[in-house]
Amino acid sequence: MEKYIYKCFDCGKVYSKDEIEKELIYLCPLCGTIEKNKPLRGILLIEYDYQAIRKNHRKEELMALKPGKFWQYEYLWPLESHDKTILQIDESQLDLISLSADCFQKLSYHGKEFHILDDTRNPTLSFKDRASSLVALKALQLGIKEIAAASTGNAGSSLAGICARLGLKSKVFVPRQIPEAKRIQIQSYGSELVLVDGDYDLAFDICLELSSAKRWYNRNTAYNPLTIEGKKWGAYDIFISAKGNIPGIIFVPTGDGVILTGLYKGFHELLELGWIDTLPRLIAVQASGGNAFVRYRQNGQFEYAPAVSIADSICAGAPRALYPANEALIRTSGDTAEVSDDEIYEAQKYVARNYGILIEPSSSAAFAAFTKFTETEKITNLSALVLFTGNGLKDIRALKNWNHDISPLRPDELKKKYGLE
Fold first, then answer.
1. What is the mean pLDDT of the chain?
2. Which long-range contacts (CB under 8 A, 24 or more apart) does 344-352 make?
3. Inter-axis angle of helices 292-299 and 322-331, to 10 degrees?
4. Which DSSP state fits 71?
5. In-domain check, residue 209
6. For the domain that residue 391 is a member of, what is the CATH number?
7. pTM for this predicted structure
8. Res. 383: pLDDT tops 80
9. pLDDT value at position 54?
């Protein structure tokens, strides 16, 4: 068997890496479909020679590594390596996209300990760096110099920043209502920013259409198999950081469903290798204004509805990875959770004022769901982990909701206020 192959989630057809990568194919050539405002069909997933990996590697070898550098275990990634170096790029260059080694932290909520995977300190301050790094390295391997993507903000700023670090160019298509901080971040990295007069789903569709016509390498989430593959990195960092003692339940901010799919893939690989005994329960957390997964799980059918919430990062009316992400929930005995914008604001405030971490609304949605599960004793006997997937400074308008404007005071007014006259 080759080091890795591509396999269609829907029809199961297997393709060699050359069949897919040399022709820049993204979805299954046999059954892949892209329809407006609908989840993708024919998503391709990457599989490895797990028998050979079991034979040649041990879990102790992986657990001895520091998290944040996926290239250290190159046998589980779809990149060519030479003399243990990815693409003949030296370690100092790869360090430009490495993540914090202490992203896995223990906290306490009302006496119950839990962990977080803190991606707010990544190179561009979000979980999306995990996918963008892999996509960018693959582009370098394929001799590609420019990448396009649609984004609500984080994937776009991630792509723009990672491309700037590695000497690549980027085009980012974003919805009209993108938070200003995310728009400025993308522009500051030198990306060509395309502001689409519509929502994220429209930006996704037009980016695909133009990329196909212009032959741009496309990073759109779920559409490019490397986005799912890159997000499995989170599962491996959790495994390494926890020394193999993975949490029993994980709260995942969910929009398109790619983080959920990627995490499941990583944990499933660890199970396949015999390095863990059970899968963690995955909880897909959504905002009430963008709850496509919740509705799909309730009635078994997808119905498009525009997504509107302060948690813009998880606003996807048509989750592109709905079907593999739902499979992840089934396989892990997982569930969905829905939180209101008011609950999101309160959770954001709580995390900032009790843990000193600024998280954006999508992350505080995950924390809000965790608190609700804790208060209803749904996780009494399970160790929990909450994903903090984005930095709070990426969306100032959310912070302004509970940090009110203040008026300046003259020195005499200050003295009076503090009882000095």
1. 95
2. 344/287, 344/309, 344/310, 344/311, 344/368, 344/398, 345/310, 345/398, 345/401, 345/402, 347/371, 348/392, 348/398, 348/399, 348/402, 349/402, 351/388, 352/392
3. 60
4. G
5. no
6. 3.40.50.1100
7. 0.96
8. yes
9. 97
pLDDT tens digits along 271-292: 999 999 999 999 999 999 999 9
Residue 413, pLDDT > 60, answer: yes
Structure tokens at 52: 């050979």
Dump pLDDT digits (tens) for 227-251.
Answer: 999 999 999 999 999 999 999 999 9
Q: What is the spatial distance between Cα 234 and Cα 117, in angstroms, rounded to a whole number? A: 8
Give residue 84's pLDDT band: very low, low, confident or very high (50, 70, 90).
Answer: low
In a domain, 375, yes or no: yes
Q: Which residues contact 298 (CB under 8 A, 6 or more apart)?
A: none
Percent of the chain with pLDDT over 90: 93
Q: Tell me how far apart the alpha carbons of residues 15 and 8 are, in angstroms, rounded to a whole number.
A: 8
- Are the C-beta atoms of residues 146 and 169 closer than 8 Å to each other? yes
Q: What pLDDT, on a 0 to 100 scale, did the predictor assign at position 235?
A: 98
The amino acid occupying position 87 is L
Q: Cβ(372)–Cβ(109) under 8 Å?
A: no
Report the number of distinct structural domains present in the chain: 1
Q: Which domain holds residue 234?
A: 104-125+227-402
Nearest residue to 145 (alpha-carbon basis) of 168, 125, 127, 126? 168
**Partners of 407 in the beta sheet?**
none
For residue 218, the surrounding DSSP H or E stretch is strand 217-218
C-alpha–C-alpha distance, residues 1 and 354, integer Å: 51
Q: Is residue 260 part of a domain?
A: yes
How far apart (Å, rounded) are the C-alpha atoms in residues 169 and 52? 37
d(CA 35, CA 56): 43
Nearest to 256 by CA among 209, 213, 320: 320
pLDDT at 83 over 80: no
Answer for the pair 207, 185: CB distance below 8 angstroms, yes or no: no
The mean pLDDT value for 16-41 works out to 96
Residue 330 domain-assigned (yes or no): yes
Which two structure tokens, joined as six digits, stand for 223?
């559409």
- Position 82 scores a pLDDT of 64
